[in-house]
Automatic annotation (TrEMBL):
The keyword Oxidoreductase applies. This is Short-chain dehydrogenase/reductase SDR. The keyword Oxidoreductase applies. Belongs to the short-chain dehydrogenases/reductases (SDR) family. The lineage of its organism: Bacteria, Bacillati, Bacillota, Bacilli, Lactobacillales. It comes from the Bacteria. GO terms for cellular component: membrane. One of its GO terms (molecular function) is oxidoreductase activity. InterPro entries: NAD(P)-bd_dom_sf, Sc_DH/Rdtase_CS, SDR_fam. Transmembrane segments: none annotated. It comes from Pseudolactococcus piscium. Keywords: Oxidoreductase. PROSITE patterns: ADH_SHORT (PS00061).
């Protein structure tokens, strides 16, 4: 019997691809997201879906980003870490970004949240490792996800699309990130890939 995999933000982007990948590997799943219909539409076997807002409050654009990216990560860790500590086994994989260690113009709030996820992950890893719990981090570069739809500024969207042309007009497929996460998870419990950075070969920053 394979272990349960819990995936937040599973309705689109990286989370959606991770859900499909781990389902193909035969894992039972608990999928969490704001849009339960999108989770149910995946049609994955042996899967429970729940509508949950990990940020747990409505807010302005910057506050929303902080609540989802940083507070949501904290909430997720808090929900599962005590049980893993008691069992002396478990794996938490946080999704950050290249923007978690490299600044990008016009992305101050986003970079701040992802820098925070890096620091949070490293700190919890130190604490959890004493109980044989892995806390890992994957930092993707630009990818074909709905992330850009969250901004209302046309100049930022136009700048991103122009930058993407330097990579041949298309960025990394989310499936590749899901495969990388599956690889990290599949390592023996006593081995931690502490951080993995993955990006398109032609991405220059």
């Amino acid at each position: 019997m394979k272990k349960l995999i819990v995936i937040t933000g599973a309705g689109s982007g990286f989370g959606k691809e991770m859900a499909k990948t781990f389902s193909e590997m035969g894992h039972p799943l608990l999928l969490i997201g704001r849009n339960k219909a999108a989770l149910d539409q995946l049609g994955l076997v042996n899967t429970l879906t729940r509508s949950v807002d990990v940020g747990n409050q409505a807010a302005t654009e910057w506050e929303r980003m902080i609540n989802v990216n940083l507070i949501g990560t904290l909430n997720g860790i808090q929900a599962v870490l005590p049980g893993m500590t008691d069992r002396k086994s478990g794996t938490i994989i946080n999704v950050s970004s290249i923007a978690g260690f490299k600044a990008f113009e016009n992305h101050a709030a986003y970079c701040a949240t992802k820098f925070g996820v890096h620091g949070l992950t490293e700190t919890v890893r130190l604490e959890a490792s004493k109980n044989n719990v892995r806390v890992l981090l994957i930092s993707p570069g630009a990818a074909e996800t709905p992330l850009l739809s969250h901004t209302t500024r046309d100049d930022i969207k136009d700048g991103y699309h122009a930058w993407k042309q330097t990579m041949g007009g298309i960025s990394m497929a989310p499936k590749e990130v899901a495969n990388a996460v599956a690889f990290m998870y599949a390592m023996p419990q006593d081995v931690s890939i502490r951080e993995l950075v993955i990006a398109s070969t032609m991405q220059d920053n």
